[in-house]
Amino acid sequence: MKIVGISGSIVGSKTRTAMDKTLQITRGKYPDADVTLVDLAEYKMVFSDGRNYSEYEGDTKVVTETIMAADAIIIGTPTFQASIPATLKNIFDLLPVNAFRDKVVSMLVTAGTAKHYLMAEQQLKPILAYMKAHIVPTYVFIEEKDFHRKEIINDDIHFRLERLVEDTVLLVNAYSDIRQAKDKEYDF
């Protein structure tokens, strides 16, 4: 199983801290999984210009092909102006409309206050649904007060991250079983 974590911003540290913790949990619980972090701060991405993702070069090609090869994607995003950052939106724009078909996508959201907790519901989930993702229904919302010195200090957040990882892997396995059962219905 290929799991890709996306840290969806080029600034700040909270989303990366949360993604690091999430992928640490993933590697601990599922050591056979191929787990990769794509931190957008570490790549030089070009803006989408409408080409097929395979026609891009350099970091843009590496990032898009890594995402397309995943069975599961865990998206970490900060909340900027009550929405997702442009860097993360650009990733969605670079990929085809069916990019997340047969992929499970879960998410964690960081924000300065609780005021933006519905951003994932109103901004991110509609994009993922449009791109045909199997969306993990619950997400982890992490506020400024849950961090101290680049560490998550809220035990409830740790528990919820563990649950997010478990739910993600369980859904990958469930959808895989469903696809296999459907494939057996055909004679070719």
Keywords:
about 190 residues, two-stranded antiparallel ribbon, globular, NAD(P)H-dep_FMN_reductase
What does this structure look like?
The strands form two sheets. Strands 1, 2, 3, 4, 5 and 6 form a six-stranded parallel β-sheet that branches. Strands 7-8 form a two-stranded antiparallel ribbon. The chain has a single domain, classed as Rossmann fold. With 188 residues, the chain is of the alpha/beta class. The model has no long low-confidence stretch (mean pLDDT 96). Helix 1 (14-29) packs across helix 5 (155-184). The protein is built from five helices and eight strands, in the order E-H-E-H-E-H-E-H-E-E-E-E-H. Helix content is 41%, strand content 20%. The chain has helices at residues 14-29, 58-68, 86-94, 119-130, 155-184, and strands at residues 2-7, 34-39, 72-78, 104-111, 134-135, 140-143, 147-148, 151-152. Helix 3 links the parallel strand 3 and strand 4 (104-111). It is globular and about 55 Å long. This is NAD(P)H-dependent oxidoreductase. InterPro entries: Flavoprotein-like_sf (IPR029039), FMN_Rdtase-like_dom (IPR005025), NAD(P)H-dep_FMN_reductase (IPR051814). Residues 1-144 form the NADPH-dependent FMN reductase-like domain. It comes from Paenibacillus radicis. Keywords: Flavoprotein, FMN, Oxidoreductase.
